[in-house]
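User: structure tokens for this one?
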Amino acid sequence: MRLALGAGARRMVRQFLAEGLVLVTLGAVLGTILAFAGLRLILTLAPDSVPRTGEMRVDSAGAGLHCWSVGHCCFPFGLAPLAQIREHNLANWIRGAGQRSMGVGGQTLRKALVVTEIALAVVLVIGSGLMIRAFWKLQQVQMGFDPGGTLTFSVSLPAAGYKNPERLRFVTTLQSRLRHPCPV
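Assistant:
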């Protein structure tokens, strides 16, 4: 419609890039919110079910990769609709005949995008199935001992508060008693 009203190629490129930037940015913000919410949900609901949950965080390297991918996705996905507007007869586009008389390039691009989307979906489904299967098998592994009734813990004392000899003696006594517990 903008072409029929006289918009030039530069204006169309700017419009599609602006629309692509808005959509990609909204997707990135939503993805970031979901990452933080998902991490908080995992840490809240099942902190002991995933190993090393204390080390889990959304770090700057991940955020940088996220921003880089957002910036690079804006151009190809924002300009993809321009590949279909190569037809010179605007009257056909306005009447709706542009869908039926689309050139070979437009149909090839559309088919390639559909095939790529289906292939990525299949890869994701297979990958998630394999991950679930591996997690299930890890739960079934025999460790060679019975972990039932076993208690583990760690003691972390601030180094600044335990520098004087009396408190240092407490720490060494505690460590030796924990290494060699008395029988109950």
